[in-house]
Amino acid sequence: MKKRLQNIFFIINNNRIHFIAWSLFIFYEVVVTGILRGYFATFSNYAVFYILNICLFYFHAHVVMPSAKNETSKAIWLLPVLIFIEIVVYVPMTIYIVSFLQKYAGLTIYTPAELNSTSIANGVWRTSYFLLFSSGYYYLTNYLKERKTAQLAEKERLLMIIEHQNVNAELIKSQHAHLKAQINPHFLFNTLSFIYSNTRKVVPEAAEAIMSLSEMMRYAIQDDSDRNFTALTQEIEQIENLIRLHQIKSENGLNIYLDYDDNLKDIEILPLILITLVENIFKHGDLLKDEHPARISISCDGQTLVVQTTNLINTKTTGTSHHIGLENIRKRLRMVYENMASLQTEKDINNYFNVMLRIELN
Asked: Which has the least CB within 10 A, 34, 61, 173, 292?
């Protein structure tokens, strides 16, 4: 019983504007018509007529009007036809319902319900009266909904502008950092080449690490101001360099495999996307278990580029990962590819972290 009362109160509260409006309208009509006629009808009389009229009001607003609006090409003649049908059906139906209640339910009506010219004329007037209010209610609620939708769209547009400005601000910061990193890069690479030449005969593995690092740094700070994309094959080369560096550091003790198709030559993507995904594996993955290797798969069917990574999560690492690198990838993908790219991440029940990147190719 308590739950039922709570549900009733919830419905009334959610539709309180309707209840208040109908209460004021009915109070006004009862008082005014009572004064003008010089008498007041019974409560049951008012209840029956207003229940029928309210049902007509909402039926017209939520069924008839939307039906006519949906048929845009027929709206000119369809709406008048539907209104005519409503009147033709509703007026006699109301009279017969009241007559039935008079005979079998003891309803007291000041004027007996009979199907004659007077009752039909009054019924047509009363029905038209409520249909007019119902049409106004429909157009008002539609206007408010459309205005709210427009406001939400404008808010979303402003948020996108703000986000775009924030991204531009971050881009400017990155460009400044990029310029700082390029201070005499030739000196850096010449120095690395010198170290490589002097160590490759003595410590071959260290020389190989220096060469891989040099290639990765050259790729990372190369001048990309005139283009937003890089060849996928170049990105894969840098992934191989990154894996090689980590393998040298760990004395080839890491279990990580890279597989990719042979038909990736003409594909271009945003630079440093795949490298960030692979760095995430080295940062948070457990690559020391032979039975749980990490895998990187890159494939393309001609329409969609799919990159999948999977690795066992290292539970011994300190700190909590906030996946900032992955969020930055999502922002970059959204800014450039919009809805043509997606990045999905999942931690499964076996403590594996799975990533799937999909890019629709033009």
From this structure: 173
